[in-house]
C-alpha cells in the first residue's frame, strides 16, 4: 500500500459532519481540490511503476445487462471517494469495506479493498473509525455513464464488525470526459446486531438521473 502525506488531506477532518447539498456544477474550489487529488493519484501510480510494482488490482468492471455500454477496461479514469463514518458510539469498524458504483444500465466498477486501492490518509491511519472522513483516490476502468447507484458492504470481520456510515461521495473524471460528482446518503448501520441487520447498504438514485456521461 502506498501512503501519501499531505496537509491538505489532513485538513479534511475539519469538514462538517453532515453533507451539504451538491450542485451539479462543481465550483472552482472543488475543482482545485480535485486537481490536487488527481495529481496525488497519478504520482502514486508513477511511483509504483518506477519501483517495478504492478498497479492495484482491487478495482474491476461490473457488467450489467447491456455490457456493450461499458466505457472500456483500460485504467484511464480517476475515481475519488470520500466516506464519512458516523460519530455515534461504536460507529467505527475493523472490517473490510467494499464499494460498488454503477450506472442505470448496471455497468460500473467494484472496489474490493478501498485502503489498498487508493487510501490517501497519513501513514498509520486507521480507516473507518468513528467520526472519520476517509479519502481514497485511484485509477480504474472508465464508465460510459455517470454512477447513480452505490453499494457499500462490510465483510463483518474484526473485533467490532458493526459500522455506521453517514455518506459516500464520489467524483469521476477521465480523458475527454466531464467531471461527475455524486453524493450517496447512507445513514445506516452495516451490522448483524443493529437494524436493519444487514452488512450492506444500497443507494439507488438512478431514477431521473439522466444519461450524463462520466
UniProtKB/TrEMBL annotation:
InterPro entries xrefs: PLAT/LH2_dom, PLAT/LH2_dom_sf
Annotated ranges, domain PLAT: 77-204
PROSITE patterns reported in the protein's UniProt record: PLAT
Pfam families according to UniProt: PLAT
PANTHER family attached to this UniProt entry: OS02G0753300 PROTEIN, PLAT DOMAIN-CONTAINING PROTEIN
Protein name, per record: PLAT domain-containing protein
Source organism (scientific name): Eragrostis curvula (weeping love grass)
Amino acid at each position: 500500500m502506498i501512503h501519501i502525506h499531505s496537509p491538505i488531506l489532513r485538513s479534511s477532518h475539519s469538514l462538517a459532519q453532515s453533507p451539504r447539498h451538491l450542485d451539479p456544477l462543481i465550483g472552482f474550489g472543488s475543482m482545485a481540490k480535485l486537481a490536487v487529488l488527481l495529481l496525488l493519484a497519478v504520482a502514486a501510480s508513477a511511483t509504483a511503476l518506477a519501483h517495478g510494482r504492478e498497479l492495484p488490482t482491487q478495482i474491476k468492471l461490473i457488467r450489467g445487462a447491456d455490457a456493450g455500454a461499458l466505457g472500456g477496461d483500460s485504467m484511464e479514469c480517476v475515481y475519488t471517494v470520500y466516506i464519512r463514518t458516523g460519530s455515534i458510539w461504536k460507529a467505527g469498524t475493523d472490517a473490510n469495506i467494499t464499494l460498488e458504483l454503477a450506472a442505470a444500465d448496471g455497468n460500473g466498477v467494484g472496489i474490493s479493498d478501498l485502503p489498498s486501492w487508493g487510501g490517501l490518509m497519513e501513514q498509520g491511519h486507521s480507516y473507518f473509525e468513528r467520526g472519520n472522513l476517509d479519502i481514497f483516490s485511484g485509477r480504474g476502468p472508465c464508465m460510459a455513464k455517470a454512477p447513480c447507484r452505490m453499494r457499500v458492504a462490510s465483510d463483518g470481520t474484526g473485533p467490532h464488525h458493526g459500522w455506521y456510515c453517514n455518506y459516500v461521495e464520489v467524483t469521476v473524471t477521465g480523458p475527454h470526459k466531464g467531471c461527475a460528482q455524486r453524493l450517496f446518503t447512507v445513514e445506516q448501520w452495516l451490522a448483524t446486531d443493529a437494524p436493519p441487520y444487514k452488512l450492506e447498504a444500497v443507494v439507488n438514485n438512478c431514477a431521473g438521473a439522466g444519461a450524463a456521461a462520466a
